[in-house]
Amino acid sequence: MTKVFEKSPAFFDTFTRKPSMQKTTHYCPGCGHGTLNKIMADQIAELGLQDQTIIVGPVGCGVFIYYYFECASVSAAHGRASAVATGVSRANPDSVTISYQGDGDLAAIGTSNAIHAANRGENMIVFFVNNNIYGMTGGQLAPTTLIDQTSMTSPDGRSVLNDGYPLRMAEMMAGLEAPVLSARVAVNNPRNIRQAVKVIKRGLEVQRDKKGYAFIEVLSQCPTNWKKDPKEACEWIDDVVCEQYPLGIFKDVVDERDPQKRQFKRVGFAAIAKQLGLSEADGDSSQQVEMAQDEMRFKFAGFGGQGILSLGMMLSQLSMERNMEVTWLPSYGPEMRGGVANCSVVVSKNAIGSPVVDNPNVLVALNRPSLEKFGPLMPEEGLVVYNSSLIDQVPADVKGHVFALPATDLASEAGTAKAANVVVLGFVARKTGMFDLSDLETFLGETFKKPTLREVNVKAVRAGWDAAE
Ligand code: SF4
User: Fold this and answer.
1) Is 57 close to ligand 1, i.e. is its CB under 6 Å away?
2) pTM value?
3) Domains along the chain with CATH numbers
4) 435-466: per-residue pLDDT in tens?
5) 222 lines ligand 1 (CB under 6 A)
6) Ligand 1 centroid vs 415 CA: distance in angstroms?
7) Which DSSP letter does residue 105 get?
8) Residues sharing a CB contact under 8 Å with residue 122, sequence separation 6 or more, in sequence order
9) How many angstroms separate the CA atoms of 29 and 155, rounded?
10) Rounded-to-5 percentages of helix, strand, coil across the chain
């Protein structure tokens, strides 16, 4: 058993987040997160679960949890930890899956994710750190803020009329049918910590034994945003917080439930084809695209408005029609309004592991910022196509076989500068050997119904094809 002041074996020996912080966490002095992490690590180690444990981290003060636990870990987008943990747990049925979330993450933006994971009785343990405010972003009002508690955004105190009542998540979860354990503990004094240890151990045993969903709410002091010193913050939990958030075990039916294991069933092509009205020919791999390797990874980048995303779409569509596995991952956001937009496309003969393209085989850069950003990431044997109508100089650190293509000029000659992306399509198709010109012409003919548009785009694709000779 790890002693109170010993480092738990489930923690890394040193934390690599910052060279200056190798032995300390990023939590503020007196913060309850650190105590909770220590209890979790001790119990994971004591139960021998370290090799099975996968921690899903949140957005919030717990965001760097992966720096501390020597277990597998995944970071989730804000509020999505319970949803990500669902996938983790189902894909790894032998794992002990932990979803670690704070008030804003679980009880505000991610409420629906959390409740539905609980209602499905997923095999996971959720640690819900309730410190009554949004911690990381500076102490704004959260769904868990106490009645009359002041915060950055409730300087006169929480008003029931305006802001509703504090959300009692542990009681809510206990009211659902599926969860086997729901409790509220605190980490503010030795007595409460001893009780927290017991409950956390039981929750982890639930996971070890595959008994379903366990929810543990942890009242945790946030001295920084409560504007109290650590001692006052600990006392405030006893004196004030527990009045509105009583400690206790609200549901424990662990001993009444049998272990549960969901069966993973892969849906075969025939079943999907039937639903989509496809024929057996659609799964015929003999029609697949010839490629230099089994998987090609593309990055298309340029200004918003240059047709970057639709260039990726066209390549994806062409590849899908040849029964290839395809992913298309756009980068949306403010960059769509004239900044740098990009999309990643993966075309493969096999199931694709990830749609993310960090080191592309093919880079198309339609503006200079894109070439500067992605060019240095290219492998030496990669193909780089840049729009020489807009880029007059190639940065020295761009790698790969670099080709200048005056895409905008060629498109203008074909009828419209907007067809620069189609010029690129012709060029890339020929350079990679993936498609014939007739494939492209047929595709454009089917895509552009209006004769004038069709004519311009066919001219543009031919111009790109010829430039690749
Ligand atoms: S802001 Fe509060 S919850 Fe966040 S690390 Fe500091 S004390 Fe802990």
Assistant:
1) no
2) 0.71
3) 19-256 (3.40.50.970), 279-467 (3.40.920.10)
4) 999 999 999 999 998 999 999 999 999 999 99
5) yes
6) 59
7) I
8) 82, 85, 86, 89, 90, 97, 212, 213
9) 25
10) 40, 20, 40
